[in-house]
């Protein structure tokens, strides 16, 4: 009997050894890494007759990339290799020595009255160029857009998703004391540069919304004494009030994804419901019919569904329903009140404002309400809007006190890289437009 | 059995002594009557009259006198004292063990520590009278504090002699013009060491948002998010067992064992499972070391243990940076194969993606690039793999699965 057992054990070990000897490569699984900004080097582009624009463009590219929180620039003083020309070959060991993982080289010149930027991106540890070199040209006045374009290309090549730097944001510019605040519509670059005002401060304006195409803006104005929806052309600031039923108030508008129709809230006889109308005219279509207040609608990226807030359950919560109307489905069930839902351009998340425990939060959840994550928390955070690539959320943060004011902030959807947009002053109600062509 | 003479003597002596003791017990009391003891007066303490108690008090020694020895009186039999007035408390010599202090006496202790806080100044109309005036210190003969003992003179000698003091300044006989600092001569700034500017590590394996680190968290135990059920792990692809061809086995048998290189220390502590793996490896080594019929195991040695695998994992994941990956790439698991050199360095050109799951091809490409960077970066110093087991890790397959680090 003992002999049999010994023989069986020996056979088992032989079999195990055979299996081990015959298996392929050593197999390991890694499910945890590190989250840190990717170090990159950006030597000042070679000046090929562009003067000061060379360093200006280089700095804007660096600000774009480092501002995402995903990349960290290695200071130029630490660089070992110096580039005499755009064609200077890259010495990879020199960049590996300072732990650079990506290298951007380029040049800026003038040609035919236009600024011409050439650049290349290198993967240091692969020892190869990442994508082809590229050349962009624009008028000298648009040199910032040129830099944003370069940064967008680099961002896309490294992360695999499109950038968001060459985009604009419409918002409400605020000035004056809190009890007598003046509000104007304004448009700026995503980073707060190039601010231009679309309205004066004679009337109150609220909740501007970019068209998905970036050519028009919807907002609520009090120029008639009552809230009404106005559509404005961004190019020439020409606007028109949308038709309405007498004795009603309309507000909280949002373009459909094709820009052909508008969904909005209409208050009549003390009841607020959602309606939809074509921007080219025609009658309004009622989408909800309940005694509760339904407002802050937004379309899904495919245009098939609408997310909005309603207090039909007794408290302010988020609901989703078909774009043509129908039975809404509540998706927010956490503690507190939820509002201002905004559908991500990717379609996978919904950003929202949450109020609980005397604080305000900006958060995201899946379209079915699961995986709710709160990204920010403060005295007053509200009004999220998505970047064109769905990676960043911009929102309004208001500080407490009589001297408090509203500012615009951005945060990555991971909750990292929370920062204020400097140089804008008082601002609220941002709406992020699409990437510019 | 007959007793000898000595035994008889002993038995006789013992019998005589026993008889004497019994006789003494019987008639000893009659012959020598005991002295009668004085009767003990037994009187219950409770029966002592108040006058007797007062007499005892009066006969008690005054302070400074040596107290006469007295029989202890049980505490429970002590007369219950009358409720003394607070004024009588200090006069009555109450023994420390006196029980049941009256309630009034509890008000006497210093309650200064328990007094209510002083009301705010703006609502106080009269100055607080509870604060005694600050008295000026009076000169008294009695020192308030004992003088600090003077330190003993040091008997030790410093190990190193102190520097000689500077010579006393002397007034020069001749006047010297006042010197002025040269305007151009600026003090030299200390040369700073070149700062390491090459990407200081700020890595983290966990994302903490402002909402989670806020001090005033919503008082709720409800989960902030409903966790998504984890995807079913993909079963490992069974590698088709390659039958060992005669030529391969012959080559394996003919090839001499490669010289063992010093193995790098494992970066992680061996776990309990390592012991099992090590034991199995040793058993297999013993089993397959010699004369196994050319299975190829003798060349490779024992297999890589779990601890050695863990050390490799720790090494690679330290360089696997997913911070710049897109959301879709964070949902993509890639399998990467890499050929290894015997010195533990990866062959960079051999790194290739063997497969991916969970994302698009573009996302897989981004995830693969991050994985490749991790292998090259951390492999530049060589992975901690035992050289004697090179046959087991000459090619490595690594699955990079960011699902645990996925943000959404």
UniProtKB/TrEMBL annotation, chain A:
Keyword Cell division present in the record's keywords: the answer is yes
Which range is the signal sequence, renumbered to this chain?
1-21
Q: Where in the numbering of this chain does the TolB N-terminal domain appear?
A: 26-130
A Gene Ontology biological process noted in the UniProt record is: protein import
Among NCBIfam families, the record links this protein to: propeller_TolB
Q: What functional role does this protein have? A: Part of the Tol-Pal system, which plays a role in outer membrane invagination during cell division and is important for maintaining outer membrane integrity.
Q: Assembly and partners?
A: The Tol-Pal system is composed of five core proteins: the inner membrane proteins TolA, TolQ and TolR, the periplasmic protein TolB and the outer membrane protein Pal. They form a network linking the inner and outer membranes and the peptidoglycan layer.
Protein family (similarity comment):
Belongs to the TolB family.
Q: What subcellular locations does the record give?
A: Periplasm
Keywords of the record: Cell cycle, Cell division, Periplasm, Signal
Stored InterPro entries? 6-blade_b-propeller_TolB-like, Tol-Pal_TolB, TolB_N, WD40
Task: Please verify whether the record's keywords include Zinc.
Answer: no
Q: Which organism is it from?
A: Rhodobacter maris
Concerning SUPFAM superfamilies, the annotation shows:
TolB, N-terminal domain, Tricorn protease N-terminal domain
Q: Please identify the protein, giving its name as recorded.
A: Tol-Pal system protein TolB
Q: Which parts of the chain span the membrane according to its record?
A: none
Cellular component, GO, one term: periplasmic space
Give the primary localization class. Answer: periplasm
Automatic annotation (TrEMBL), chain B:
Which processes are annotated in GO (biological process)?
A: cell division
Q: Where is the composition biased (Low complexity)?
A: 57-78, 200-211, 245-275
| Bias (Pro residues) ranges | 92-102, 232-244
Q: Where is the composition biased (Basic and acidic residues)?
A: 179-198
Q: Which keywords annotate this record?
A: Cell cycle, Cell division, Membrane, Transmembrane, Transmembrane helix
TM helices/strands, residue ranges = 12-32
The annotated region (Disordered) lies at 57-275
Top-rank taxon of the source lineage equals Bacteria
The name on file for this protein is Cell division and transport-associated protein TolA
